[in-house]
Amino acid sequence: MILILLGPPGAGKGTQAQRLVSAHRLVQLSTGDMVRAAIASGSEVGCQIKTYYDAGKLVPDALIIAMFGERLAQPDCVRGAILDGFPRTVAQAAALDAMLAERGLTLDHVIEMTVDDEALIERIAGRFTCAACGTGYHDRFKPTKVSGICDTCGGMQFNRRADDKAETVRARLEVYNGQTAPLLPYFRAKGKLRSVDGMASIDTVGRAINAILEGHAG
Ligand code: ADP
Ligand code: ADP
Ligand code: ZN
């Protein structure tokens, strides 16, 4: 199964992808995580990418398509994957079509998560992740059960993203509206697009997504 979670920064794509991974034995392919890993590694590609990332701009299509394609070719993706943060442009969506065809995979669902801009800003401002296992949290909406300790792995170190500061967030929302929102009519035309109300609680959104995957959503 190939599932794309589509939505602006802070919509809850990563949060829902992590839930689905545990429930459905699928892998989560997050191009944002790939980009952060490349930057952290200090590789040549990482250095090229960093300028775009820091400014809240999209990494050029050719680079991100190559990075994503390499990951999709790994053996753990044979049963499918949850795509979180890719595609983000129409050119990436076209490249994805070709990659899926080559691997005999089909795109099953594209789920759009809609969230108001103000809520996005609040979500991004409070976002942090476990440094050891990557589990995502929020200061207010999804705190750790025990303060300072990761629910998943017991880790005690957490990260906040450099691009989650207010100025960069505004740039990222503009990029979403300009370059990624055109994917909505693109997937709608293919009959693949479904929407969920991303303003609801994490559990409610999770149930709405499951209903779509199980094929009995209204
Ligand atoms: P995205 O991957 O779309 O950028 P995340 O999944 O990282 O978004 O979520 C952004 C922040 O909002 C995180 O701190 C997460 O814990 C929190 N969050 C996610 N979904 C919800 C929700 N439905 N209600 C409230 N907070 C949420
Ligand atoms: P969010 O979870 O807030 O939507 P991501 O972690 O997915 O953000 O992406 C963070 C940054 O990584 C983007 O602002 C962009 O610089 C880069 N990036 C991630 N995915 C892509 C992509 N598909 N195409 C281009 N750039 C990307
Ligand atoms: Zn952890």
Q: What attributes does this structure have?
A:
about 220 residues; alpha/beta; Rossmann fold; three-stranded antiparallel beta sheet; 8 strands; globular; binds adenosine-5'-diphosphate; binds zinc ion
Tell me the overall shape: globular
User: Which structural class do you get from the secondary structure elements?
Assistant: alpha/beta
Order of helices and strands: EHEHHHEHEHEEEHHEH
Distance between the termini: 21 Å
* Highest CATH level, the class of the domain at 2-26 and 79-116 and 174-213: Alpha Beta
How does CATH name the architecture of the domain at 2-26 and 79-116 and 174-213?
3-Layer(aba) Sandwich
Extended strand count:
8
Describe this entry's structure for a reader.
The chain has 218 residues and is an alpha/beta fold. It has a domain at 2-26 and 79-116 and 174-213: 3-Layer(aba) Sandwich (Rossmann fold), CATH 3.40.50.300. 48% of the residues lie in helices and 16% in strands. It has a five-stranded parallel beta sheet with strand order 2-3-1-4-8, with helices on both faces. A three-stranded antiparallel beta sheet has the order 6-5-7. A hairpin with a 5-residue loop joins strand 5 (127-130) and strand 6 (136-138). It is globular. It starts with a strand and ends in a 5-residue tail after the last helix. The mean pLDDT is 95. Bound molecules: adenosine-5'-diphosphate (2 copies) and zinc ion (ZN). Residues 130, 132-133, 135, 150, 152-153, 155 line the site of zinc ion.
